[in-house]
Amino acid sequence: MSQQDFNPAFATIAETSAALRGRKISARELLALTYQRIDRHNPALNAIVWQDRERAMVGATQADKVLAAGKESAAFLGVPVTIKESFAYRGSPNTWGLPPLRHAPSARTAVAVERLESAGAIVVGKTNVPVMLADWQSDNPVYGTTNNPWDPTRTAGGSTGGGAAALAAGMGCLTLGSDLSGSIRIPAHFCGVYGHKPTLELISTAGFQPGPWEGAPAVPMDLSVVGPLARGARDLAIGLEAMGGPAGAQAIAWTWRLPRPRHTRLRDFRIGYVMDDARAPVSSDLAAVYQRVLTELRGTGAVMEQGWPNGLDVEGQLKTYQFLLFAFVNAVGRDEPAKPETHRRWMQETQCRLAFRARWQKYFEAHDVFLCPAGFSAAFQHDHSQPLEKRVVETPEGPRPYLSTPWWTISATLSGLPATTAPVGLTATALPVGMQIVAPMWEDGTAIEFAALLSDAIGGFTPPPAFQE
């Protein structure tokens, strides 16, 4: 995109930064346009649920001073971004959808958000989530329901649904989300944007918690991560480079850099893939899109191999994941007599988790990426009935269990692997379809670059028709 063609609503981070540095637009002008767009489009979506426009304008004014001085600028200088409501941000509540926390602001800002701001980003608002981030729809009694910009009768996903919807509608260049059971990848898939689940512990989770945060250590994570969503694949790498690496005392001992991707041409990649499985059958409308992508990839001459890694116990993955998930969510083992047995079981399951990681890492000695669906269906109709296990998702082949929604995201979560969701087309009913690109642990750049190269070949983000203006 040339500066003459610069569209502030849908430009990438790189394009926006170039426009700011080239004085095509000022940071204050860009922020004002962003808020005009939020005023026009957010009421239909309910994606952004908290704003502090005065603080944002102060940040934009400071960015303009730096830009006017002509000094080397940070990657995000003057770039508008949003953050998930679940992150502490000084002076704002991080309720996680819980009404008692609505008027309980945090005294400090989460580390990942601090790093975005240190890189020059302007936080324009916080985005909606489900209660306790525990659903694949973003709805709660504090802020209400977020709608999908492609079809307001459908969900934008969860738990980073508000962020994905805001991005797709052109409200901010990047959003910061989190992912435990596909909470970045599924909303990206449902809304037609890019989302990246980083390698486990790549980005600090300090300040990612319900209720006021005053600097307490991050909760130990063996599954959950925080990471970026964007409208351009390479914007994900810019976000990782700004937020990644050790925090606190760890930064004294070691540093981190984003490794270069294994390849820079699609034809050089060794691609493994599974696009359907009887345990989570993919609906026919998604399958048709995935097959077109595979046909395109075969045409590049890339080496391709279908099938799960040799010796991978897919059922075993699920069982270990479920134990660790429920242990985290329900704080298993609080009763004193049960602690020794509970800890022994956790250690055993953790050993299993690391064994699965080793199996995947061995697979990546002969493969560069592994492709699979981001979900078994496109975005589904709003359904907030309880309990979740009674819900169903309608597909062309009939209703499917709602709790199968995150099945395809489990492999990368359990093993701590980086996984990028990339938009790869639309269904016959004009709903976005995302594909997961899983890469070796710590090699986030390989998944992201593959997504970027794929967008060059087949196209990437497309604005939803109702939000193109």
Overview of the structural elements:
The chain has one domain (3-307, 368-467): Amidase signature (AS) domain (Amidase signature (AS) enzymes), CATH 3.90.1300. It has helices at 13-21, 27-45, 53-69, 111-118, 161-168, 185-191, 233-243, 250-253, 284-300, 314-330, 339-363, 410-415, 444-458; strands at residues 48-50, 80-84, 122-127, 139-140, 144-145, 147-148, 151-155, 174-179, 194-197, 225-230, 270-273, 303-306, 369-373, 392-395, 398-401, 419-426, 432-438. The chain is built from 13 helices and 17 strands. The chain is of the alpha+beta class. Helix 2 packs antiparallel against helix 3 (53-69) and helix 7 (233-243) runs antiparallel to helix 13. It is 35% helix and 16% strand. An 11-stranded mixed sheet has the order 1-3-2-8-10-9-16-17-13-11-12, with helices on both faces. Strands 4-5 form a two-stranded antiparallel sheet. A two-stranded antiparallel ribbon has the order 6-7. It is globular.
